[in-house]
Design a protein that fits this description.
The N terminus is likely disordered. Strands 4-5-6-7-11-10-9-8 form an 8-stranded antiparallel β-sheet, with helices on one face. The protein has about 220 residues and is of the alpha+beta class.
Length: about 220
């Protein structure tokens, strides 16, 4: 009896120990790898701003009346010499030697650079104490717009977009005068003279009425 009681007590003690033992973390261990395998949340991709379209810069059109690169001639004068300036101002602007002087009793005459061999090749007309016109009779100079001695009437009209007004030459049979006004650029005009063959023999730029003097200062 005493032995049976002892066995019963031992069985009860073993059962109590089993019941009080803490549970193993099997479930937690199984859950841990699953959590580790889960991908970390990623930040949403930031969209790059679309490139802003810009209009190409339009190139500035070249002016239609650009003067020829090989000349100082313009509707306003020649180089720094301005039509309408006094004789003294014109000489100062030229800054070189000019030959010529008025004849007694006249107010119209020509001044020419010292390198001019023929007066008809190049000269500045002075009248009443002012620079009023310049004349060119050589192909070494280009007129405003590009016209030159030796060009044909057809080539000249094409160069000036058929804007040259034609009139018969006063002294040359079959010749003509082709002219164009400055149109607001200056109170001046360009006149080409042609021969009977239709080629330019001379041209001049000047103020009115002096630019229309067919005989110059004669």
């Amino acid at each position: 009896m005493r032995r049976s009681s002892a066995l019963l007590l031992l069985a009860l003690a073993t059962t109590s120990l089993v019941a009080c033992k803490p549970a193993t973390p099997a479930a937690d261990a199984a859950a841990a790898p699953e959590a580790a395998d889960s991908p970390a949340p990623t930040a949403p991709a930031v969209a790059k701003p679309a490139p802003v379209a810009t209009d190409p810069v339009a190139s500035e059109p070249a002016p239609a009346d650009t003067p020829a690169a090989d000349t100082q001639a313009s509707f306003s004068g020649y180089g720094d010499m301005k039509l309408g300036s006094t004789v003294e101002e014109a000489k100062a602007a030229w800054a070189g030697e000019l030959n010529g002087k008025p004849m007694e009793g006249t107010t119209c005459y020509y001044l020419s650079p010292k390198w001019v061999k023929k007066p008809s090749d190049f000269g500045f007309m002075m009248e009443e104490g002012k620079f009023v016109r310049y004349d060119v009779g050589t192909d070494k100079e280009a007129a405003p717009g590009g016209g030159k001695v030796g060009m044909t009437v057809e080539a000249l009209q094409k160069l000036y977009n058929n804007a040259l007004e034609s009139s018969p030459h006063k002294y040359v049979q079959g010749g003509s005068n082709l002219s164009i006004a400055a149109s607001g650029v200056a109170p001046s005009k360009l006149v080409f003279e042609t021969d009977a063959a239709g080629k330019v023999t001379a041209w001049r730029v000047g103020l009115t009425p002096q630019v229309d003097y067919v005989e110059g200062c004669s």
